[in-house]
Amino acid sequence: MFSNAMSYIDIANDILVSLLILGIGVAIVMVGVLYVIDITQTQHAIRRNFPVVGRFRYFFEHLGEFFRQYFFAQDREEMPFNRAQRSWVYRAAKDIDNTIAFGSTRDLTPIGTTYFVNTAFPTLDENAAKPESMQIGPYCDKPYETASFFNISGMSYGAISKPAITALSNGARMSGAWMNTGEGGLSPAHLAGGADIVFQIGTAKYGVRDHDGNLSDEKLKEIAAHEQVRMFEIKLSQGAKPGKGGILPGGKVSAEIAAIRGIPIGQDSISPNRHPEMNSVSDILDAVEHIRRVTGKPTGFKTVIGDYHWLDDMLTEVNRRGIESAPDFITIDSADGGTGAAPVALMDYMGLPLRESLPKVVDILHKHGLKNRVKVIASGKMITAADVAWALCIGADFCTSARGFMFALGCIQALQCNKNTCPTGITTHDLKLQRGLDPTDKAERVAHYKHNLEYSVGVIAHSCGVPEPRGLRRSHCRVVQADGTSVRLDEVYPDQRDGRAEAAD
């Protein structure tokens, strides 16, 4: 019996040795093939000069971004969002303790740093108030009223996965937030949770287009017939890619995507870089009025601000036509907004950041006496309570976030959004990767994140001595100047909301 066992061991050893020799042989052959390929190719100098070995450069370059994120970067060093910011969102989404010990790691010295001004007499807990409800679209057949000041920004079905949108829809309903469809049309997943919906009309008119790509009143009415669809948003431009349309490759245009967007199956779909029919501020106002009349629901537009003088022309035209002609809201996207894919030249260098554009837009509205009529929605890289509190101080009525809610879904900032390889299943169509995203669990995290962020904004407001977040003013925030000292925001941007009398809703 012992001899039989030994013979089996000998056989196993022989097999292992044979496999090892075979593996070494295959490896030698592969190295030889790669050597010949590298030494003869002419596109990569490193590989040509250092055959085979030079390939490790690309491997380590790929691994570098992950090593920097997890091993080398300090908590507040990474871009676009550092570990401290992401950690806050993760903990808020999981509804676990979000306190820290020993002291803040935030540097308060760089120029432009903001912080809030506490009062000697903060709001007592018993005097704290819930956020006031605000009406959008007072001249519509069906105005929209909500107390939620933090909501989900536009993310198209196709840009993010069905499980992700399903989780967002359910989480939005659970927390009382609205969610924006993005420009990809209204999918069943958007409606699945019962959340309030803002339907976005992009330059390609996905979901509301006729066979020629023009806006279809019939399709508009079909979308508006959904009780969940509360508002319509015309997308003029996006912070991450202002002045740039998009290409949806035919390979991604499945039967489902084609039906939702109203385009042919399997064919490339090109989005114009702007709405071709809108050539002036009058055209924009005409489009707003047309959609509002056809749907009966509040209608506004989204834009990233660069040149802002056209807003003066538009609001002058509004006052000439009458206050009812104004857009019901303006969504201001930031130059530091995000997207799944955009040219570097636009992503890095085009448009104004929200810190500059939001005060300008709010002040222009005040100048024309229209701030009460036109609600301002701030968007772009707003994921923490401090971001939202600052925007409310400036004069925003609402804030929206896409990437904040992506973090709530489990995004790890792997920077794979444009490669269909998202490891968390959020921005991929790979069913194997989508499997890791449980919509039921993530919906709860979405709701927790929204609730905890709004609660934290309330804490900031109470420390400043106001009962609820929309009571924040520019005088409640300070910004660091070049000499290292800070000044109140209302010294940099004088607060006009208590100045000129404005038209009431």
Overview of the structural elements:
The chain has 505 residues and is of the alpha/beta class. It has 2 domains: 2-72; 125-473, Aldolase class I (TIM Barrel, Alpha-Beta Barrel), CATH 3.20.20.70. The protein has 17 helices and 15 strands. It has helices at residues 2-40, 45-49, 55-72, 83-94, 162-175, 188-192, 217-224, 255-261, 281-295, 309-321, 344-349, 354-367, 385-394, 403-409, 431-434, 439-463, 489-492; strands at residues 114-116, 134-136, 144-146, 150-152, 178-180, 196-201, 229-235, 247-248, 269-270, 299-304, 329-333, 375-379, 398-401, 477-480, 486-488. The protein has an 8-stranded parallel sheet. A 3-stranded antiparallel sheet has the order 1-14-15. Strand 10, helix 10 (309-321) and strand 11 (329-333) form a beta-alpha-beta unit. Helix 4 (83-94) packs across helix 16. The longest helix has 39 residues, at 2-40. The N and C termini lie far apart (95 Å). Mean pLDDT is 86; it is low at 498-505.
In short:
By secondary structure, this protein is of the alpha/beta class.
Write the layout of secondary structure elements.
Elements: H1 2-40, H2 45-49, H3 55-72, H4 83-94, E1 114-116, E2 134-136, E3 144-146, E4 150-152, H5 162-175, E5 178-180, H6 188-192, E6 196-201, H7 217-224, E7 229-235, E8 247-248, H8 255-261, E9 269-270, H9 281-295, E10 299-304, H10 309-321, E11 329-333, H11 344-349, H12 354-367, E12 375-379, H13 385-394, E13 398-401, H14 403-409, H15 431-434, H16 439-463, E14 477-480, E15 486-488, H17 489-492
Parallel strand pairs: 4-13, 5-6, 6-7, 7-10, 10-11, 11-12, 12-13
Antiparallel strand pairs: 1-14, 2-3, 8-9, 14-15
Helix pairs in contact: 4-14, 4-16, 5-16, 13-16
